[in-house]
From TrEMBL:
<dbReference type="Pfam" id="PF01565">
    <property type="entry name" value="FAD_binding_4"/>
</dbReference>
<feature type="signal peptide">
    <location>
        <begin position="1"/>
        <end position="18"/>
    </location>
</feature>
<dbReference type="InterPro" id="IPR016166">
    <property type="entry name" value="FAD-bd_PCMH"/>
</dbReference>
<dbReference type="InterPro" id="IPR050432">
    <property type="entry name" value="FAD-linked_Oxidoreductases_BP"/>
</dbReference>
<keyword id="KW-0560">Oxidoreductase</keyword>
<dbReference type="InterPro" id="IPR006094">
    <property type="entry name" value="Oxid_FAD_bind_N"/>
</dbReference>
<dbReference type="GO" id="GO:0016491">
    <property type="term" value="F:oxidoreductase activity"/>
</dbReference>
<dbReference type="GO" id="GO:0071949">
    <property type="term" value="F:FAD binding"/>
</dbReference>
<dbReference type="InterPro" id="IPR036318">
    <property type="entry name" value="FAD-bd_PCMH-like_sf"/>
</dbReference>
<protein>
    <recommendedName>
        <fullName>FAD-binding PCMH-type domain-containing protein</fullName>
    </recommendedName>
</protein>
<dbReference type="InterPro" id="IPR016169">
    <property type="entry name" value="FAD-bd_PCMH_sub2"/>
</dbReference>
<keyword id="KW-0732">Signal</keyword>
<dbReference type="Pfam" id="PF08031">
    <property type="entry name" value="BBE"/>
</dbReference>
<comment type="similarity">
    <text>Belongs to the oxygen-dependent FAD-linked oxidoreductase family.</text>
</comment>
<dbReference type="InterPro" id="IPR012951">
    <property type="entry name" value="BBE"/>
</dbReference>
<feature type="domain" description="FAD-binding PCMH-type">
    <location>
        <begin position="114"/>
        <end position="294"/>
    </location>
</feature>
């Protein structure tokens, strides 16, 4: 006990000794259980949250009997891979892996349509009171609590069978602060409510002459899983990750307290929420982040393919040269997004904030020269943009961001692999093995070092600081495959083959907790590294009843979803 107390004291979280979590009940109450709330109880709860309780009707219902409607079903199928479609739903999730074919639009009309892995009820929250009352109700009735913003999570953390969710996605307020002042920062900032999307932020920033460190997908929720999970951005080789730019959070804890978390107030909570994962420590009501004066951007795109005069070996020679080149890009402050699979390679784009066309051309010229030398025909475009938003709009067309299009793997590749051609060669070989075995490589060259991030103190996985790439060896999603085949594909091909090859090459590195294999065998080490134990203690201090759960979140291994969907103590 003394040893544990000393450890906690050394972590600066001694007060948690007074708030040790009581042992939770073995299982959450599930629909159909005798103690599941009666309709009258749900009705009364609905009245207490201003009528904002929504009973889940699975989004795919019109594709199934007895509600089958061919026109509506066609619309659902046509929009299934568009994130905006799911975002409007109170209960849908973007990654169909987590819908578990509960009510799948691509399955025959007579196949099952159940709520399944979707939550049972959602409260469309707009006030702190709605959130607190939902927490109290979930606790009182021992119901699984789910925290959902846009439902983008690839790890399935924003849904849950038998769950009662709060949906923060409609809280869209922002407050632009010209002169934020704190001990560590004086300058422009923006306070962002829990439901603000990346594109809303970009548009508002543009109108005010600012740029914000945020992600590539327009519909991702900025203050939810994105920033709390770290959040990579086209600006990250220049300004660090999104979590590196946090100034303070307003948080509602699962015990109903409203707290400010900053480097000087509840600093342990601030540290954890800045990179230690969404849906784990509390419900973020708002995040305040630094913003940067907007500046010109240059972008380059390059593509080439296997063809009549380009053998596969030659194609790989071109890609291997690209791989060797990227440290020059990231050192210059660029982030370089490459997608390659089958027989096509797309660098789309190299994004150089603060750079002009000549500088972008200079960066990619050795790569272009090599393609010429190899006799590989290629397409190139290099452009200048007056600011972040015009560059973002041109270089990241929204069609790029489909959902349920891929099964994800992922690994952070440390810069040390680029120390010499001899060290790089095994990585190049593995990438070739992986892609030739059918992977879609989603390969981001990015350098969010502590130095560019301004030496923040936060829970971002340390492996990010040494990373040159976040590399996702993905598999194409098959809408028509059955669930067992999909899971087997994920496990056999990604978990035990693609990612395993990368793990072997990168001992001590890790993976981006938001974009990786949800079945990562050692998620604690891979997603949280040496921060794990400290994060767990902070979680238990602020979420003593363990209401917040995600299978890959900190503390997630203490609970397990049973085959019937019920969540039980592991
Ligand atoms: C198409 C696509 C493109 C993407 N592009 C990028 C990218 O460019 N860069 C990048 O870094 N990531 C990217 N991501 C990953 C993205 O950052 C994560 O999926 C992230 O978890 C989404 O957060 P959300 O709040 O929008 O989603 P949700 O699924 O609603 O929530 C994600 C997690 O955050 C928790 N959470 C949500 N709101 C809150 C809150 N208010 N307080 C506490 N916890 C909360 C949830 O419980 C859940 O655990 C992309 C994902 C997709 C699907």
């Amino acid at each position: 006990m003394l040893a544990i107390a000393l450890l906690l004291l050394s972590l600066g979280i001694a007060p948690s000794l007074q708030t040790r979590p009581p042992a939770p009940k073995a299982c959450k109450t599930f629909p159909g259980d005798p103690d599941w709330p009666s309709p009258a109880t749900w009705h009364a709860f609905n009245a207490s949250v201003d009528g904002r309780l929504i009973r889940t009707v699975p989004i795919g219902s019109p594709c199934h009997n007895p509600n089958f409607n061919a026109t509506e079903c066609d619309i659902i199928k046509a929009n299934w891979h568009d994130p905006a479609f799911h975002e409007l739903s109170p209960s849908s999730i973007q990654d169909s892996l987590w819908a578990n074919k509960s009510c799948d639009p691509f399955s025959p009309p007579d196949s099952r349509c159940i709520i399944g892995n979707y939550v049972q009820y959602t409260v469309n929250v707009s006030t702190q009171d709605h959130i607190k009352k939902t927490l109290t109700f979930a606790k009182q009735h021992n119901i699984r609590f789910v925290l959902r913003n846009t439902g983008h999570d690839y790890m399935g953390k924003s849904t849950g069978a038998g769950g009662l969710a709060i949906w923060t996605g409609n809280m869209k307020k922002t407050e632009w602060i010209p002169h934020f002042k704190s001990a560590g920062y004086c300058g422009p900032a923006v306070k962002v409510a829990a439901g603000v999307s990346v594109i809303q932020l970009y548009e508002e920033a543009d109108a005010r002459g600012f740029a914000v460190v945020a992600g590539a997908c327009p519909t991702v929720g900025f203050a939810g899983g994105y920033i709390q999970g770290g959040g990579h951005s086209a600006l990250s080789s220049k300004h660090g990750l999104a979590a590196d730019n946090t100034l303070e959070f307003e948080v509602i804890t699962t015990t109903g307290q409203f707290l400010t978390a900053s480097p000087t107030q509840n600093s342990d909570l601030y540290w954890a929420i800045s990179g230690g994962g969404g849906g784990t420590y509390g419900i973020v009501w708002s995040a305040t982040v630094k913003v940067f004066p907007d500046e010109e951007v240059s972008g380059a795109s390059v593509s080439f393919a296997v063809g009549p005069n380009v053998t596969r070996d030659l194609w790989w020679e071109g890609i291997n040269f690209y791989t060797a080149q990227t440290p020059n890009y990231t050192a210059a402050g660029a982030v370089s997004y490459a997608f390659y699979s089958g027989d096509t390679f797309n660098l789309s784009p190299l994004f150089l904030p603060g750079g002009n066309k000549d500088q972008a051309r200079k960066l990619v010229q050795p790569f272009l020269d090599k393609l010429v030398e190899l006799g590989i025909p290629h397409n190139v475009s290099i452009d200048n943009f007056p600011g972040y938003l015009p560059a973002y709009t041109a270089l990241f067309p929204s069609a790029l961001f489909g959902v349920s299009t891929q099964l994800f793997g992922g690994r952070l590749l440390p810069r040390s692999l680029w120390d010499s051609p001899q060290k790089l060669a095994p990585l190049q070989d593995s990438i070739r093995n992986i892609v030739d075995a059918g992977a879609l490589a989603f390969d981001i060259a990015i350098r969010p070092t502590l130095a560019v991030a301004g030496n923040p103190k936060n829970a971002v996985l340390p492996a990010w600081r040494a990373a040159e790439r976040t590399f996702n060896p993905n598999l194409p999603w098959d809408d028509t495959a059955n669930f067992a085949t999909t899971v087997a594909n994920q496990l056999d091909t990604i978990t035990h083959n693609f990612d395993e090859q990368l793990r072997k090459l990168t001992p001590g590195s890790g993976a981006y907790l938001n974009e990786a294999d949800p079945f990562e065998p050692n998620f604690k080490e891979a997603f949280y590294g040496p921060n794990y134990n400290k994060l767990l203690a902070i979680k238990d201090k602020f979420d003593p009843d363990q209401l917040l759960f995600g299978s890959t979140a900190v503390g997630g291994d203490r609970w397990a979803q049973q085959p019937d969907g019920r969540l039980c103590r592991a």
